[in-house]
Amino acid sequence: MELTITTLAVRPELARPMYEMPETWPEFVLEDLVGWANYPRLAVDFPEYALVATDPDGTVVARAYSVPFALHAPGRGKLPEGGWDQVLLWAFSDLQHGRMPDTVSAIEICVAKGLQGQGISGRMVAAMRENAGRLGFREVVAPVRPNAKHLNASVPMEEYARRTRTEDGLPYDPWLRVHVRAGGVIEAVAPVSMTVSASLARWRSWTGLPFDEDGPVEVPGALVPVQCSVAHGYAVYVEPNVWVRHRV
Hints:
Elements: E1 4-7, H1 15-19, H2 33-38, H3 42-45, E2 50-54, E3 60-69, H4 83-97, E4 103-111, H5 120-134, E5 139-144, H6 157-161, H7 174-181, E6 185-199, H8 200-207, E7 215-217, E8 226-229, E9 234-247
Parallel strand pairs: 4-5
Antiparallel strand pairs: 1-2, 2-3, 3-4, 5-9, 6-9, 7-8, 8-9
């Protein structure tokens, strides 16, 4: 597919269609409180780090959000165990306090529903790296959400992330494979990258599952089981991601 990829800073009129693009995220993923509070601000505060892809008709077919942050600020120095949530908090804190960023982190790469499998995600990874280089950065990191892990929810992420294919040694997971093919290196697991806690009533509404027994519940789209407590009336999902580092 022929694509035009630009930043939101150049094409601010695409902010709304970019945000409203049909997507495939599980409903519960959108309930992470750190994301809920900060995601809508990405297009406003970091438009030069927001990439949008359009087809020849001008329809938005993919978006890629990233943020600059000070990875090597005092007290930091390594990719956080808090993954996606933590890097979002660092980025907005750095912006507020005027800290000079030294690294770019991917926040989301999303292809419009129905257009997966056409190589668009890989092109967005490449565009994100190129954009970071243009802005003067030397590396991009990504708290990757492996897109086939939900089919292996009971497998620890550390084990899953290291699985490779016998034929070429590339990662077993398709999304990790895209990153590695693009030059990324798997560095670490972020065990608490995103957290969604809610009442059992809300989990039932999101998933259609009964949530009527204590213990782990495998939920469609969840990378690990959701932990349910019937007596206390709530369930908690703690999602691990995989840190991948790209040199620019």
